[in-house]
Amino acid sequence: MSQPTTNKPALGASSAAYGITRVREPLSWRAEWRRQLGRRRTLVAFGLLAALPIILVIAFAFGDDDGNQRGGATTRIFDLAQSGAANFSLVVVFLASELLLVLVAALFCGDAVPSEASWASLRYLLIAPVRRSRLLTSKAVVGIGSTALATVLLPAWALVVGGVAYGWGPLTNPLGENLTWGQFLPRLALACAYIFVTLLPIAAIAFWLGTRSDAPLAAVGGAVLISILANILDQLDALDPYRNALPGHYNRAWQDALAIEPQWMDMIHGTLWSLVWAVAFTMLAYRRFRRVDILS
């Protein structure tokens, strides 16, 4: 009985000649963005952001004027929301930055890795082959990019809705002082950029939790709970001055950029602390993902 022969490629022969196709880019950026923007939770998140200004217009239309008799700077800002597009967009950004944008950042970054694990496709991506660092970087960039896109689109859409509903009046603060559109738009862009930076710690925490769990809800919910806990601790005067380092302590400093005479010190401190937390938890995520056994 003759021995079976094995056809081995000659040394230096092309793999294409033997029907072997080498995948040059198994996880392209375009494919990752297409998957991100086509997912239902992404569409729902952007839908909620788009609905917020419209809901506020409806609420103001059916509301009463009792709030005009109440005191407080925040109340006066809400009273001015119907004075024009600039004030309306500022109110929308104020409301969304308190919780909605935090949820969006946690969702986009915390769901990135666990979703692949829940679909049982994570290990197949690594077999493709895709380096773990390359896979994690693509997830992080797309998640952070989606958060940045949401942070930009929300005020832009609020300006359009506010302009249609209330006209294109300039920004008016509770003291009756005005900012022209030439002054307001660059400062609004700077404020939104700062809000995006303050979202990075929550995004990084959610991303790190996503490398430790196969459940997307655990990563997203865990990051939101940490954000709530940090906000609670930030209210304790006994923690001075250490609470200044908590993520979220300087979250409202973006309002200083829209003052008649802007103050920048709190924004600088908030930017530095946000970057420290974001870099630390991102490094923890890479460290975890490189060492963990991928079973799903």
Could you describe the 3D structure shown?
The protein is mainly alpha-helical. The chain has one domain (28-291). Helix content is 64%, strand content 1%. The chain contains 10 helices and 2 strands, in the order αααααααββααα. Mean pLDDT is 81; it is low at 1-24 and 67-73.
What is the H/E order?
HHHHHHHEEHHH
- Cross-sheet strand order for the largest sheet: 1-2
Largest sheet descriptor: 2 strands, antiparallel
Unreliable stretches: 1-24, 67-73
How large is the radius of gyration?
A: 24 Å
The overall strand count is 2
* Helix content percent band: 55-70%
Instruction: Tell me what portion of residues adopts beta-strand conformation.
Output: under 5%
As for the number of domains, it is 1
Q: If you average the pLDDT, what whole number results?
A: 81
End-to-end separation: 45 Å
Task: Please tally the helical runs, counting DSSP H or I stretches of 4 or more residues.
Answer: 10
Shape, principal axes of CA atoms: globular
The secondary-structure class comes to mainly alpha
Précis, in short:
With 296 residues, the chain is mainly alpha-helical. The chain is built from 10 helices and 2 strands; from the N terminus they run αααααααββααα.
Observed structural traits:
296 residues; mainly alpha; 2 strands; 64% helix; disordered N terminus
Write the layout of secondary structure elements.
Elements: H1 29-38, H2 40-62, H3 73-79, H4 85-110, H5 112-118, H6 122-127, H7 132-166, E1 171-172, E2 178-179, H8 181-210, H9 216-234, H10 265-291
Antiparallel strand pairs: 1-2
Helix pairs in contact: 1-7, 2-4, 2-7, 4-7, 4-8, 4-9, 7-8, 8-9, 8-10
